[in-house]
Amino acid sequence: MNGRYVSVNAHDGRQFQAYLATAIGGSGPGVVLCQEIFGINQAMRDVADFLAEEGYSVLVPDLYWRQKPGVDLGYSEEDFQQAFGFYQAFDENAGVDDISASLNALRQLPECTGSAQGVVGYCLGGKLAYLAACRLPEVACAVGYYGVGIEKALGELEGLQGRRLVLHAAELDQFCPAEARAEIFAAALKTPGVETYLYPGVDHAFARPNGHHFNKPAALMAHERTVAALRRTLGPDYDLSALWEEHIRHEFETRDVPATMATMVAEPYVNHIPTMTGGVGYAQLSRFYQHHFVHGNPQDMALTPISRTVGATQIVDEFIMTFTHDSEIDWMLPGVAATGHKVQIPMLGVVKFRGPKLCHEHIYWDQASVLVQVGLLKPAGLPIAGAETARKLLDESLPSNSLMPNWANSADPRA
């Protein structure tokens, strides 16, 4: 836990507690995070800390304070029954008032910058984020994860007034079945500023790490969309391209491992997909860079950029890598002695950032093409190619379909 608890003045003059996670760098746009039915538990504090790494100062109000301050439940059957009792007795209107008070408190903190604010919520908090977006003009962007009961409050959408609202829904969510979801999505289509996303084959709470229904691909996609919406509305704006260029410079030019690691989050990971080389966590990845990558690449290794797509939290880089295989390259050709062959290989990098730091790299290439070029794989009779793949990427006028024996059969005889 990286945050601390602060007091919030309620609109009725009383006070309640809230967990504050401060944005990386000490300050950032303010976001109020609305809890699940289990109170401000470890899962909610972790979400707040995670969003703080993305550049937001996050306040998690104790929305059960009128019933019982400091509720912090787990996910046992006994805890679920307690949580459900709190949920059944919860006053949504009072909850929205407390979100308003929390936004006001957040604005006054030095950790919060800018005038635009956001609200993110899960489960119970997902509906509260929806209501806050519709009722509170100070909410510039709201994101609701699998909110419960939104279909009963669709008339509230009239109050949205074009502000941004993102709703994540789970296909198998028994608390928001298909009929309810259809009503919500239909109303959203008619309302400017609303984005709806359905995650197939997943259940309620799919974004809760270590939860019974946690689904990592869906959670990652939802997080990407959440941060994209927050970035567009609240900021902060990071120059991901410049951050990536700095990382590459230390990898291939200065060959400085500490400087390379300094561009990354505390526990990053790198995965070279074809060979499964890289590392998970600071210690393993630093070791990998020091002994198997940064200082082990051929001196003539070079990257030729082809295209770059920059999103809210990631970059997709298309490039050609060229080198002479004059030394063993642990990460690409592990255990293969130098062959002296020249290699040209198209590559694709999916580079994820968390705030201003690189979080992970997924690097792809055609290993068969590499093996052909270093003489370890004969292409005859196989649908594989060597350096031609790189040349074709650079020059689209080169022949297509040369590996397809049946290509000639589809030719128009009249041509």
Task: Report what the structure shows.
- By secondary structure, the protein is α/β, with parallel strands linked by helices.
- The protein has two domains: 4-234, Rossmann fold, CATH 3.40.50.1820; 240-404, Nuclear Transport Factor 2, Chain: A.
- It has helices at 42-53, 77-88, 92-107, 124-135, 178-189, 216-234, 240-252, 257-262, 282-293, 367-373, 388-394; strands at residues 4-9, 15-21, 28-34, 57-61, 112-122, 139-145, 164-170, 194-199, 264-272, 277-280, 302-310, 314-324, 342-354, 357-365.
- It is elongated, with a radius of gyration of 26 Å.
- The mean pLDDT is 96.
- Residues 249-358 form the SnoaL-like domain.
- InterPro entries: AB_hydrolase_fold, Dienelactn_hydro, Dienelactone_hydrolase-like, NTF2-like_dom_sf, SnoaL-like.
Secondary structure blueprint with pairings:
Blueprint: E1 4-9, E2 15-21, E3 28-34, H1 42-53, E4 57-61, H2 77-88, H3 92-107, E5 112-122, H4 124-135, E6 139-145, E7 164-170, H5 178-189, E8 194-199, H6 216-234, H7 240-252, H8 257-262, E9 264-272, E10 277-280, H9 282-293, E11 302-310, E12 314-324, E13 342-354, E14 357-365, H10 367-373, H11 388-394
Helix pairs in contact: 3-4
Task: Please give a quick description of this structure.
The protein is of the alpha/beta class and 415 residues long. The protein is 31% helix and 27% strand.
Main features:
415 residues, Rossmann fold, elongated, Nuclear Transport Factor 2, Chain: A, six-stranded mixed sheet, 2 domains, Dienelactone_hydrolase-like, eight-stranded mixed sheet
